[in-house]
Amino acid sequence: MQTPSAAAPQASRATRDPESRVGEFDADKSPVIQVQGLSKTYQTARGALHLFQDLNLEVKAGEIIAIVGQSGAGKSTLLHILGALDAPSTGTVYCASTNVAKLSAKEAAAFRNREIGYVWQFHYLLPEFTALENVAMPLLARNMRKVEALKTAEKWLNEVGLEDRGDHRPGELSGGEQQRVALARALVCSPRLLLADEPTGDLDSVTAGRVFDLIERLHGTHGLTSIVVTHNMDLAVRCGRTLRLENGRLIQVTDAGPKGPQAGHIH
């Protein structure tokens, strides 16, 4: 696996150059994700569809990386495998020191609740519950007392700037507000890893930028390791690394400057 030749450790946004990227690669940090020899094959009416073949990936603690690629390349499937929502056909997938491919369904559910926060393109908030109740849901799934769960959820609504929207149902919120509630819900259990699948894909450009600003801030202040799937290259280049999923391989974009992308294969 090839890595960038050099990068500075992540600093606070207040002390970094405003054009620097959050989550810069630090070779001294231990990996949160290690993928080796990953393959995923689906059986179709036309025969076997090989989505990945011998895919490798390593993500260090504290990194925020972007994964880009054409629709149908397998970006979402890769996130599902990393997050113990799907299993690879072959290969090893270690996430937070756990071989997620070996987990039973019950173990995988507990692992996801403990270690991973998910944000999707569509917020998937429960329409019959308030924003506060939606954020509290993962804590209630842990059998936390309702009073305590709601108190913790309230703190996270404050974190995303929605302290005055806790009693609103999703239909009473704007698209950007709904996604901020979804982000609070993803992080309410203090996970180690944030997986975001097109988190701004359903938003206008201005709102998308604000939501991504929030993801960057929470990534830094809460010590997350984050993987963001996006079609928006303007947002992708703000991450510490950008990887392109293409023909079942990850290609690392090492220079997105004026001369255009230069890439090195990771396999």
CATH topology: Rossmann fold
Would you tell me the structural class of the helices and strands? alpha/beta
How many E strands? Answer: 11
Q: How many helical elements?
A: 7
Radius of gyration: 18 Å
* Fraction in beta strands: 25-35%
Mean pLDDT: 83
Write down the CATH class.
Answer: Alpha Beta
Identify the CATH homologous superfamily: P-loop containing nucleotide triphosphate hydrolases
Helix content: 25-40%
Topology as a string of helices (H) and strands (E): EEEHEEHEHHHEHEHEEE
List the domain count as a whole number: 1
pLDDT under 50 segments (min length 5)?
A: 1-27, 254-267
Sheet of most strands: 7 strands, mixed
> What is the CATH architecture term?
3-Layer(aba) Sandwich
From the N-terminal CA to the C-terminal CA, the straight-line distance is: 6 Å
Shape: globular
Strand order of the largest sheet: 6-7-8-3-9-10-11
How is this structure best described in words?
- The termini are close together.
- A hairpin with a 6-residue loop joins strand 10 and strand 11 (262-266).
- The longest helix is centred in the C-terminal third of the chain and has 17 residues, at 205-221.
- The chain has 267 residues and is α/β, with parallel strands linked by helices.
- It is globular, with a radius of gyration of 18 Å.
- Helices cover 29% and strands 27% of the residues.
- The strands form two sheets. A seven-stranded mixed β-sheet has the order 6-7-8-3-9-10-11. The protein has a four-stranded antiparallel β-sheet with strand order 2-1-4-5, with no helix packed on it.
- It has a single domain, classed as P-loop containing nucleotide triphosphate hydrolases (Rossmann fold).
